[in-house]
Amino acid sequence: MSLATPFMATPNRPQLRGLLPLLLALWLAVAFNGDARADGAPAVVERLQVAEPYLELHTGPGRGYPVFFVVERQQWVVVEMRRTDWFRVRAEGGQVGWVPRPRLETTLTEAGGTKTFRDLVVDDYLSRRVEFGSAIGRFKTEPMLKLWLQARLADTIGAELTVGQVQGLYSGTDFWHVGLTSEPWSDRRLSPFLSVGLGKFANIPNSSLVDAVPTNAKLASATLGLRWHVSERFTARLDWSLYTAFVSDARSTEYRAITAGVGFFF
Questions:
Q1: CATH no., domain 52-107
Q2: What pLDDT is stored for residue 9 in this prediction?
Q3: Which three-class secondary structure state does DSSP give residue 234?
């Protein structure tokens, strides 16, 4: 049984091939929409007065973004949202820019006190219960794409649904599996995890091949991964997986896959 082929439809069989790109498009729409909602829904609604000679506004949340505007002493800014240790603020003239936390902590509140901000803590990560993500990588020697949806059942246990496609030269493969994920060090920003699951595997040879016969099989999976909390909402993830396809009662085939991707919490 060979893997690979451009995605192709076969008659009388529901296809993941058209569904997975749609799910990926949905992932992108929801992710960016969710970020837009975070931009539109201020985490903090508060006016602060500049106490230093000036306050520099950057075009983005990072030192690499240039300064485009300077707010002078005794002028006011409104805090609109937080992204890790950067805050988006609006000046009196309507200019919107980003300020690092140390600089914003030199400002004064309306009551005249020095402004302080709470550190991001592990509870900010653990309070997020549903994660949606996508990844690309290699399934044996072929390129693959997968999407996952995980619900955290407890601080260290989650349930995950994964759907994937493998694209190659001579055949294509669809698969899905559900399983349990154990993340014993979920209280850390860099967190390893282990998951096991069961699902289905469908290999579809190119119809131009002689004696091409699609193969459907039960699938078992075991995954060792590493999750990094990039921010309160977004994560990066690296997975190594072992897939076992039970082609018949007497035969099974193993495949190894490695993927890297990103996810976001609802």
A1: 2.30.30.40
A2: 36
A3: strand
